Predict the structure.
Amino acid sequence: MYLQTWLIVVFGILGVSVPVPAGPLHAQCSVDWYLGIPCKDHCRLCHGRTEVSVPGGRFLLPQRSVQLLSANVHFTAGKHTTPVKKFVDDVSFRLVPSDLYTHCRVSGFSISETWYVAFNHGTNYCNLYNLMEGSGLTDVPGYKEMTSAFICTQRSRANCTV
């Protein structure tokens, strides 16, 4: 009994160090892109090159499908279903004008709806990147991507070939 009390006091005072993996504990990804074009051009470019008129309100890229839920000049949201396991990911893009409305910052976020998915080989990153690439935005002047493994689960394992 004396030993248990002593251990509780020691760990209480010193604290217990438990290794925790860096980054989110759930499969998700956050990416910021900086574009040298106004946000209004991004919206027009996105809708002009990725939307396809099909039943169910979907816009398609080769081997990728995202159901569009809402879209306006500042925010776009949808759902992506993985082809094999049929997991559903929520995908969103927020557009913020910068540099006196001559440039655009696009903040993308994708998160797995399935609560127990912790590792997905970069699927959430690919959800975002494939839409940016498919819309032609990776080729615009001033394109720059900002993310890391800390805010984007398994970004380094992502294979976004379409």
